[in-house]
Amino acid sequence: MKAIKDIPINGIAFALVRVPSSNRLLFGSSDFQVYDLDLAADKSGPKVLGAHQSYVTGLALAGTLAISGGYDGRLIWWDIETRKQIRAVEAHTKWIRKVALSPDGKMVASVGDDMVCRLWNVADGKMLYELRGHHERTPHHFPSMLFVCTFAPDGQSLATADKVGHIVVWDTASGKPIKTLEAPGMYTWDPVQRKHSIGGIRALAFSPDGKYLAAGGISKIGNVDHLDGKARIEVFDWQKGEKAHEHIDDKFKGLVEHLVFHPKGDWVLGGGGANDGFFLFFDLKTKKALRQEKAAMHIHAFALDEKAETIYAAGYGKIQKLEV
Q: What are 85-100's pLDDT values in tens digits?
């Protein structure tokens, strides 16, 4: 891996999407802004597309429409060509953690700390389904969090995952749950020093053939004041309800914040961090890490190009383009 371009930014980039077949990126930031960044421009620099009332932590792209979600609980539609807001929806009563687009570009899913996933019509912003399958409280009676959602490649299924490692796979045509999975190794409860819990599934990704569902997070943590658990990826044969692979990293500690499969399913790439950042390539065939690379910052989101030869990464203080 080789970094070929660094773009300094203000704050932390929590969410990132790439305009297909281009070097143009959109990202959401801790400074409440949604930015448009063309890395092919002579003088690359982020331009403000629009703003939320707080952190922007979810982002999806449907053609020329970007849909962003944030701590303010709002989903906002933006026309990225005219650079104008199309609509805003009061989508969740708490922090929107993630936004995901269906493969056909017709539906967008959002998850928030109100522990609800909602499916929306991209064209008119109307809610299609409200999906409730995650408890509002942890087993120790503290507020839980619903971190992530992702669509299967055929668009017929949607997966959601929470703080205690509970995964629900939903049928997108009916809004009904079709499978539940558990990854309790990604949740830590400290009953002695802090009486506090930490962890959770922060990343999900379906394999290109739809057979496997990968989940990313952090292993058991000794000191809940720090992210000192080992980076963790679990892969499920989700239709069978079985865990197929488990990788507890021997080199990096911290959260796996984002997961993307190789277009042919050869490997799954995880990115994340603690005080620093990392990339982790995991091979499903050998059940081993192909490569473990230190990153220039804590990685919150990334995207691959069509050939999986370039990584566009977003994190603390910068956007980075890397060659694989």
A: 999 999 999 999 999 9
Helix (H, G, I), strand (E, B) or coil at 290: strand
* Residue 185, SS3 per DSSP: helix
| Cα dist from 288 to 243, 249, 285, whole Å | 15, 10, 8
Beta-strand relationship, 47-51 and 255-261: unpaired
Please state, in angstroms and rounded to a whole number, the distance separating the CA atoms of residues 11 and 20.
26
| pTM of the full structure | 0.96
Q: Which two structure tokens, joined as six digits, stand for 25?
A: 């990126």
User: For residue 139, what are its two tokens?
Assistant: 């087993």
- Three-state secondary structure of 1-64: CEEEEEEEEEEEEEEEEECCCCCEEEEEECCCEEEEEECCCCCCCCEEEEECCCCEEEEEEECC
- Say if domain 2-323 classifies as CATH 2.130.10.10: yes
- Domain ranges across the chain: 2-323
